[in-house]
Write a structure and sequence with these properties.
The structure is a homotrimer of 375-residue chains. With 375 residues, the first copy, chain A, is α+β, with helices and mostly antiparallel strands. Helices cover 15% and strands 37% of the residues of chain A. The first copy, chain A, is built from 6 helices and 23 strands. In chain A, the strands form 5 sheets. A 6-stranded mixed beta sheet of chain A has the order 12-11-14-19-16-17, with no helix packed on it. Chain A is globular, with a radius of gyration of 23 Å.
Chain lengths: 375, 375, 375
Amino acid sequence: MTEDTMDAIPGASAEPAVRSRRDFLRGAAVGLAVPAVASALAACKAEDAGRGAARTAPAAAPASATHADSDHSGGTMAPNPQNPGAAAAAAEEMDRHHEAGIKSFPAATKGKGNQPIQPRLENGVKVYDLTAAVQQWEVAPGQMVEAWAYNGQVPGPQIRVKQGDRVRVNLTNNLPESTAIHFHGVSLVNGMDGVPFITQPPVKPGAKFTYEFVVPNSGSHMYHSHLNSAKQVPSGLLGAFIVEPRGGETRRADVDYVMIINDGPHGYTLNGKGFPATEPIVANRGQKVRVRFMNEGMMIHPMHLHGMPMLVTHKDGYPQPQPWHCDTLNVAPGERWDVMIDCDNPGTWAFHCHILPHAEGPMGMFGMVTALVVK
Amino acid sequence: MTEDTMDAIPGASAEPAVRSRRDFLRGAAVGLAVPAVASALAACKAEDAGRGAARTAPAAAPASATHADSDHSGGTMAPNPQNPGAAAAAAEEMDRHHEAGIKSFPAATKGKGNQPIQPRLENGVKVYDLTAAVQQWEVAPGQMVEAWAYNGQVPGPQIRVKQGDRVRVNLTNNLPESTAIHFHGVSLVNGMDGVPFITQPPVKPGAKFTYEFVVPNSGSHMYHSHLNSAKQVPSGLLGAFIVEPRGGETRRADVDYVMIINDGPHGYTLNGKGFPATEPIVANRGQKVRVRFMNEGMMIHPMHLHGMPMLVTHKDGYPQPQPWHCDTLNVAPGERWDVMIDCDNPGTWAFHCHILPHAEGPMGMFGMVTALVVK
Amino acid sequence: MTEDTMDAIPGASAEPAVRSRRDFLRGAAVGLAVPAVASALAACKAEDAGRGAARTAPAAAPASATHADSDHSGGTMAPNPQNPGAAAAAAEEMDRHHEAGIKSFPAATKGKGNQPIQPRLENGVKVYDLTAAVQQWEVAPGQMVEAWAYNGQVPGPQIRVKQGDRVRVNLTNNLPESTAIHFHGVSLVNGMDGVPFITQPPVKPGAKFTYEFVVPNSGSHMYHSHLNSAKQVPSGLLGAFIVEPRGGETRRADVDYVMIINDGPHGYTLNGKGFPATEPIVANRGQKVRVRFMNEGMMIHPMHLHGMPMLVTHKDGYPQPQPWHCDTLNVAPGERWDVMIDCDNPGTWAFHCHILPHAEGPMGMFGMVTALVVK
């Protein structure tokens, strides 16, 4: 740990010291390396006293005698007289790794998946070209894996269409084996369902195949391989296929975020990246964020958001009869869940799978961790 | 791959070619070996153009210039000029295995579980005789496993009674160890609950035990061993115990299908068989299918239906306050979920666990895969 | 097996014999070693005939000819003439182990977690002192494990506050590594969220940290470590944080039971203990029991109650729009579910995870098993 770091992060000192919450937040903000998050936190701090008061204390809450040195809308740290100087070198080393991981968030890596793709319009048909090929993918800083990807992205390009649209998807297979695309959740005519030997022949290496259909049902859906799928899908042949209802979304979202969960040969990832290379969700206080969870992995992941509840509005693209709140949502492979978050609590909020070994190890957070930043 | 196969399945050709969806469906139909499914697909094809039009295009949708060779309600395949002749022998070999598996569906195996059992009536009591014994079981073609089974079936005989019925179950234990039957989900009087040393003594090898009760609550329930259960249940000592409500089912189903999920020593199975020995669900267009999911395994399985949503009506036999739609339903061990499927989309639809390694490997589909065939 | 045991438990005899349900229950009651459960069962038996009749038969239900030796509201056991003397020594040995486990329930062990903690009041603030330290923990009789615990308890002390309360938690870290407390599900101001390097510095070994806040939202929440959490949480740094709504609970419960599920290095546990050291839930007939399920483990556990349904009222502390019934509830890590049980069915009812290898092995029940005793 450098002297600089110790200055910037009060609590990182080997000598425990009394600090107010305002100092801690300043330390955390300094520790966050990327402008978006840092400025979000700065904005958060500007509103801090008011918010803190609203959340933590009536205006006239008296300070207790033993805590006169703190502002009482936050926390205090003190040396433990029963156990002075107990900090071991191993604990410091562990903290240093944890801190370094968080400071580097969101870390830059080569390649970004799940990017919106604009269709080419041909006689009123929205045309998308997808090429499947094998490539290298940087899943976390310096960590390269083999990916089977559409258009060089993991997840593949994010397709957004409208209910009733006529859509054409031109698939080119540059993989070493056959493949096919299943539009998971879209109630297509059978011949477009993408299951080799049941609804179509396999698309051979070097071949092309065109899917064309009118989109019948709205919702958060997916597209992915349906051949040798236990290998091809988790390796990256997956993407979001989002269908806006004919009459528009019933709930307005200021931010519409797709979170694709995977746990295959790339490790535990959100949108193709593991922490600290995951992407934070950034919103202003008072805004509404929609998150569309999609699980393309092989395990079930209970996703937990700190600080605010999630209102569950849709399952697999279908509205729930009555939305309901939670802070931890269990998302199984093949499932999609839409939630709305009312961003009324400023700060940087951890957002992670609550199967803890998918999110943290002795050397720090990794895998299925991101943050919701409410400015 | 034989010449015959290549003729029958257009897309199986090593030379990619332009084909219409109608050809692909014909190919798939030829590929399906069993009359029920084949004739279902034939019926499906007869309605195809209309359905396809309804689902995929307004009647007057113009053909685009680059696709004049297709009918535009389906897909097209074309050679990829950038990558001619890329099909490797390994890819062909993989496809051949995938095709062979699907062509053999539904494959014949010895023994069929989950068969309705008729009670013997004794003074108004519905009497069922169940004998538990060890035997061999053909879980998939040629794949024999040791089963612990009731009446030679895995799952055991399907028991259907009515709420308020007086039922007697005579259990004979021909196993090498003690056993007992728990009627899972049926709110019986304590002494009939089937938990050795808590509600009854174990039923020793060679002994008999009689359960007798009036059925208090309706719904999709189960019966299974409750002694050394982690061994006895997944080995086959399990079955459906379905109780019709006193006033009859509130939702009419043309087809009422029980799908018992298991993942024990027999591998990944639906009703005691792995694909391609699983049983398709067959319905006519316009019919309503009820599926009663029951998980008797040790893992959670998200079951995904292609082509149509499922309306979730009951959990563990109790009605959901407001039914809700999904296409992927997460079914945990011990849970039962009832869904209704409105069969409005003709075709052969894959129906499988979406934990992909439970459904497909490099050599083709296996395990937790079946199909809904809408004629 | 001793002679005494054979006398007490009729069915444990090596010679199968015809017995009525009343005898079996008596046997089971004798077999249960602990007064609370034994007296509960005794009470249950007093009401038995009435209840049995209500549940199993109309008053005038005729006895069938073949069962004149039983009372017909229960079960009967008979020797199997086709297979006399088949009971093997191995089967007897297995039964002996199963019986011994159940007879010892609830078994005494050193240490009890999840005990209500009373706050110290300081100027209207509810103050709790929590000290985290490493210790030994008896998870089941004679089975010692290393625990990382708050105040010597696994789970940590059960904190119950009221919405709007001002709460102070003084954490002292006597662990060999840094830690922090996250109040999981409580929508606190960001600085109190307990995520080191994001909302606060880590609490170093030997240091103290004070959390202070006004509790904004009601419900079944948790507190646990949020540093090196995949190690610290399942090792025991976890506890219940229950917030009564400002206006009081809308549903009255005679018994309010917190069930914290864990599956870390201590094995499969409920409230820090594995069967037979788990604690039964005891209620009188007609009473209402609330169970607050909380999963602090790394696996999903479908919890199954015998004998009566559970009414699901809350998810993560938020009311479900319309409560719904089930008998098996899937609880994922980080989730909390509140259910109400209407104790209308007297007896001792198994209550366990239905992933059977989490609850039973060849040598008997263990791990995630307890009982609801309705007197």
